[in-house]
Amino acid sequence: MISSRPAIFAAIALFFVGQTLAVPMPMSMRRAMEAREPVLPFEVIPAYIKRADINSMPAEVPTKGVNGDIVAYRKRVNGDIVAYRKRADINSMPAEVPTKGVNGDIVAYRKRADINSMPAEVPTKGVNGEIVAY
Predict the structure, then answer these.
(1) DSSP for 28-86, written as a single string
(2) d(CA 43, CA 12)
(3) CA-based R_g, the chain, Å
(4) 69-110 per-position pLDDT tens digit
(5) Residue 60 and residue 88: Cα distance in Å, rounded?
(6) Which of 52, 87, 101, 132 has its Cα between 20 and 30 A from that of 115?
(7) What is the top-level taxon of the source organism (predicted)?
(8) pLDDT higher than threshold 90 for residue 51
(9) Strand, helix or coil at 13?
(10) Are 72 and 60 within 8 A, CB to CB?
(11) Are the C-beta atoms of 107 and 113 separated by less than 8 Å?
């Protein structure tokens, strides 16, 4: 069991020891340290140098990278280059409605009929798939 009085005394003693060790450096030692230090500041690491913005395409245009160059996607129709068009929005259901895909069509889930006609307070049992009161 640690008593609080010795712990406080030890903390104060460590504080004073730290203060005595933090005495300012003598001038001769400080000049010797300055002579060793380089005059120029440190150089910037190449990873942190900002590169020029090479993306000149707007964000809405579909692009690809060909040999390091950013190029817009193009398709050929009978030898002519035609830009891709945005597909029609085939999802007509709102996002809040739960849906499923049936043979490629988006269909809303239907809620099943409520087959439990007994109140929750009545004890029930299932006999051949039918809900029956005890």
Answers:
(1) HHHHHHHHHS-SSPPPPPGGGSPPP----S-TTS-EEEETTEEEE--EEETTEEE---P
(2) 43
(3) 39
(4) 888 777 767 767 676 666 666 767 788 888 888 887 888 888
(5) 16
(6) 101
(7) Eukaryota
(8) no
(9) helix
(10) no
(11) no
Tokens of 16: 């004073």
Record the pTM.
Answer: 0.23
Residue identified by tokens 């996607």 is: 73
How far is it, in rounded angstroms, from Cα 45 to Cα 51?
A: 13
Q: Which of 109, 108, 106, 110 is nearest to 90 (CA)?
A: 106
Handedness of CA 21, 24, 29, 35 (dihedral sign): positive
User: pLDDT tens for residues 13-31?
Assistant: 999 888 887 777 777 777 7
CA geometry: angle at 117 spanning 113 and 123, to 5°? 135
Instruction: Give backbone dihedrals phi and psi of 32, rounded to 5 degrees, phi first.
Output: -65, -40
| Of the candidates 60, 64, 59, the residue with the CA atom closest to the CA atom of residue 75 | 64
